[in-house]
Amino acid sequence: MHLENSDKLTRHKRPLLALTGIRFIAAFYVVVFHALPWLQQHFALPQPVLTFLGNGYLAVSLFFILSGFILTYTYEGQIEGRLNRTHFWEARFARIYPVYLLSLILAYAFERGLSLPTRVAVLTMVQAWNPRAPALTGAWNYPAWSLSVEIFFYLCFPFLLLWMSRSSDRMLHWLIVVLGAACVLLHTPVRGLGILDRTSFLANNVPLPVLRIPEFLMGMAIGLKVLRTGRAAPRPHHLRLYAAVFACIVLLSSPLGPWVSLVAIPFGIVVHDLTEAASLLARALATRPMVLLGSASYTVYLLQFPVRSWTRAFFAHFFPRYSSLGTTLTPVILVFFSIAVFYVWEEPCRKFIRSFFVPKELAASKLNSASPANNLGS
Known about the structure:
By secondary structure, this protein is an all-alpha fold. The protein has helices at 6-10, 17-34, 36-42, 47-54, 59-75, 82-107, 116-123, 145-165, 169-185, 209-229, 238-252, 264-273, 280-285, 288-295, 297-318, 323-357. The protein has one domain. The protein has 16 helices and no strands. The longest helix has 35 residues, at 323-357.
């Protein structure tokens, strides 16, 4: 299938704005998770709240499911053949690398002791690929490990989509069930290592991309299901959506240990049911402020550590008497700074990079301007 036809093939697909809005909630959940030590110092929080905040890292699992879903929803039927695969990878690079590189530049002043091989691994986004080098995973800018996992997903995606698209509706249903069970039973959202984490080879808890792929595949399968059932105009399931959200909160607030991986199931339901725009929650997430915040959520997620470090350094140097105020203001500064970066760096850089790859006559193609919800987190 030729790339020139991609805009015609996707013109009927409506934008899923609620899935952009929920990305900000997921990204900010991770930010609050990393701020938990400070919150514990200053506030006497109830144990369920502490447990909920302590499980904030699980939002990355939601990002992986969302990534598989949105990429499938956007590119299904468009990336067969080497040329289209190449354009897909170019578009992904243009989307994620500018902010990724900016995060490393901003974090450089606080990570100068890294070895050259470590810097090369992080710059090339393969830091989470080596089970024998667990120290690489969180090097330079810790949240960047998840982008290393995403890159692996992107490399595999065109081939996975071609295979999964051939599945019958019945097989697709069972794929969702099996992949959901794999996420839960292997505790994929919790450690990404499952039953293998007891072996000496993987004892260091490295989030290898191949072991996080059940979440991504589940998102892909849900995406194909939505594309197929969308033609039949299914009835909305508002009560199921709210029940799934409630289940997420309960599971994340409960002391379940590794079985908090059960949250992958309601995560998948939330992603599926938010595609129905009629629910009150979907409409709230699709408002302009939430879509703007969701568009900047990738930057919020990736810049949280450098912004926090620079904010603390700024206040410690210029306003030492108010250093605690800097810590308090960090989330607000992060959000506003991320919105600015989205407008003046992320989007201009993406368009600039794409201009080198894409002929001018294809610049308006859907393939070359994927939704902001397509990247991580994810």
